[in-house]
Amino acid sequence: MTLQKPLGYILGQTMRVYRNRINSVLKESQIELGIDQFLILLTLNARDDLTQQDLAHHLQKDKSIILRQINALLEKRYVVRLPDKDDKRKKNLILTQKGSDTLQQAIDLGKQLSEELLAGISTDDLAVFENVMLKIQQNGGFNEDDGHSCFKQPNTQNE
Questions:
Q1: Which of 25, 36, 46, 77 has the fewest C-beta atoms lying within 10 Å of its C-beta?
Q2: Where would I find the HTH marR-type domain in this sequence (predicted)?
């Protein structure tokens, strides 16, 4: 099967549209988060025992990029680093109440943006789209079932 435009171009342009729009919406709402920081908070919301290395692996980002984002989140007091219960050498990243509150605002804005961007697309088309995107991820070797999914039930938040 061939596409009219290269897959990378279509995916890249779509992600750029989404990234630019979500960054604008967050900025307009005076929420100090970029999309990468939003994804980190979303992931930490699902698990309270993740390290920087875990985040880099799950988000498929370079460790140095994750470090810069984590440092920014630490400065904003959206996350804290705490020693692991079992291995004191490890530092787990924990979402603070401030981080949790900010994340919830960002999630609400993200839902509104999704509704806006998906307007006029049928439920059937959306189901096909989601299945195709998941299949592309699987074909590329991404496995969301590696224990780090950010779409699990959130944990109780820490102060």
A1: 77
A2: 4-138
